[in-house]
Structure formats: C-alpha cells, structure tokens
Design goal:
heterodimer; A: about 210 residues; mainly alpha; Arp2/3 complex 21 kDa subunit ARPC3; two-stranded antiparallel ribbon; 7 helices; about 75% helix; B: about 120 residues; 4 helices; about 0% strand
Chain lengths: ~210, ~120
C-alpha cells in the first residue's frame, strides 16, 4: 500500500510529513549513543531482509497481491525506536531509487507502514505477550500485533485518501481493511516464523536491549 | 563479521535477486481498492486508467530503477530482463544494508578509543 505522488492532497501529505519528522527526530535522538556494538549488524540484516521481503508480493485474493511490512518483527528484536530508523530508511530507499511510493507521500508511507508497526505494534506485542506469558504469549503477541499493524496501516491509508478527497471513506475504509485483514495474516505468519527461527538458532539475539 | 549476519544477508539476496522474479505482479491492496472504486462498473481497465490519471505527471522525481528493474538492461523489445530485476534487487539490498550500517555506527554509543590515550 505504498501511496504514489498524486493520491494525497497537499494539506494531508504535509501533515503526515510533519508527524513522521517529529517521530523520526525523537527516534534518532533517543537511539543516539544508546545503540550497542551488537545492535548494528542486527539492524543491517533486518533492514536487508525487510527490503527484500517487501519485494515479494504474493497473491492474496482475486487479482490482488500483498507483501510483508516487518515493523513488528524489527521492533520486537530491536525495540520501537531503533526499528523506526530501519523502517524509515527502507521506505526512503524504495521511494528514491525504485519509485515505490511517492516523495510527497513518503511521510504518510513511513507513518502508515513503518511507525504504526514499530511503535503501536510493539506495545500491543508487549501487552499481549505479557498478559499471556511464556513462549506461547510471545508468539501470540507477535501474531496479534503484526496483524493489527497491517490492518491499522490500511485504515490510516484509507482515512488519508478520504481526507484528501480522492475516494469516499465509507467505500475505501471497509475495502482497505477487508483486503488487509488477509495480508495481515501473512504478516503474522512471517513475523512468528522469523522470530521462532531466531529462537531456535540464536536465542541470544532476541535478548538485545530494546531501544 | 558474525555468521548470522552473512546468513541473513545471503537470505535477503536470494529473496531480492531470485525469489522476487516469481513475485505476483497483480495490483496490491491499495491499487485494487482504487481500481474498484474508479471502475464504476466499467471494468478493471477503466478503473486502472482513472487511477493512473491521478498520478500522471505528479511524480516529484524519476527514480533510476522504477518497479525494481534497471530499464537500461532490456531485451530487443525493450522489456527488462530477469538479470535487470535481479541486479536491481542486489543493488537495493546492499544499499539498505550499507546505509543502515552507516547510520548505526553514527548513532552508536561512544566507545573509549584505547589508542587515543
């Protein structure tokens, strides 16, 4: 759901840019001098994996495809702010080098597909996994948060399009949420699979300080 | 370099350079919704045209590798080849990895440099 230039009105994309710059500024400020030696390789690998994963569109419904986002995955390993830096970088590269998402709409794209997962999704993951507890709680929390992050991203996208006067909200919102409740299942599956793979092979990597 | 890093990077490269060649090219969720809304009973093609009219000429920049292919690497008919898509994926993965590593190093905790003492 990368929004191209032209889909959002100037007031809407400008507002989303401001929100994104504020969150990004805070994330950079808070990660500055907190990142340890061990965070950096994990950030690089996660960013590369998320970039590649977002290239892999799979069919989700008749004539429609979807791909992973990775916000909850990266936040569960690195913490919400370090993960926000990764997600923003991925969307910036996609827009500048691959015309995947516009420049005016880049703020909205980083917010919707990045920060909703890395920040809101992270706290959903923590709350759910804390409430259930144990290994089972961790995976249920990841699944719920990943699904919710994708669905909320699609809702945010629909609201921005409607606020821009591009499409009517009463049509776009249920349509976006409907399709992305399926895409969200893929996101949940990938997130759980990736974390459980790390758990089996290098559980220590899941113990990095969350920033 | 840690072993998991090499493995992770290799996995990303296989995904971006090989598996991506088999990815679905159907419209994504947002495009599907826009096409359906704009089609208004005149079929997908009409909806797609209307959707594209919205973005026509609105691109702020012209990206060098639109749709994850290198346009210069194409067959005789001008269609990008598989190599073109794989190289674009390779470039993207390495760029993102390099950028994040550089950003990470900039944001790192200050470590006392023994040699400076």
């Amino acid at each position: 759901m990368h929004i191209p230039d032209g889909f959002l009105s100037a007031p809407v994309w400008a507002a989303m840019w401001i929100a994104t710059i504020v969150i990004m500024g805070y994330a950079v400020m808070r990660t500055n001098r907190k990142l340890g030696e061990k965070h950096i390789p994990m950030m690089g690998v996660l960013a590369a994996f998320i970039f590649a994963g977002q290239m892999l569109n799979t069919p989700v419904a008749g004539g429609t495809s979807g791909h992973m986002l990775g916000g909850v995955l990266s936040a569960s390993i690195l913490g919400p702010l370090a993960a926000s830096v990764i997600m923003a970088t991925v969307f910036i590269v996609q827009a500048i080098f691959f015309q995947d998402g516009g420049i005016t709409t880049l703020g909205a794209n980083i917010f919707n597909m990045g920060f909703i997962g890395t920040i809101f999704g992270y706290y959903v993951y923590r709350s759910v996994s804390g409430a259930i507890g144990g290994q089972r709680g961790r995976y249920i929390g990841l699944g719920v948060a990943a699904w919710l992050a994708v669905v909320l991203a699609s809702a945010a996208c629909a609201i921005e399009l409607a606020a821009s006067g591009t499409v009517p909200l009463n049509v776009a919102l249920p349509a976006m949420v409907g399709i992305h409740s399926i895409v969200g299942l893929i996101e949940a599956g990938i997130t759980i699979a990736a974390v459980s793979y790390i758990m089996k092979t290098r559980p220590d990597l899941l113990e990095l300080e969350k920033i | 370099m840690e072993r998991y890093m090499i493995k992770g990077l290799l996995l990303a490269l296989v995904m971006a350079c090989v598996i991506s060649l088999f990815a679905s090219s159907s419209p994504d969720g947002l495009e599907r919704v826009m096409i359906n809304i704009f089609a208004q009973g005149h079929g997908d093609e009409h909806g797609e045209e209307k959707m594209e009219e919205l973005c026509e000429g609105k691109e702020v920049i012209t990206a060098p590798m639109p749709d994850y292919v290198i346009p210069q690497i194409a067959d005789n008919e001008g269609n990008p080849t598989m190599l073109s898509a794989s190289l674009a994926g390779l470039f993207g993965v390495l760029l993102v990895f390099g950028l994040i590593t550089a950003v990470g190093k900039t944001l790192k905790k200050e470590v006392k440099n023994v040699r400076d003492k």
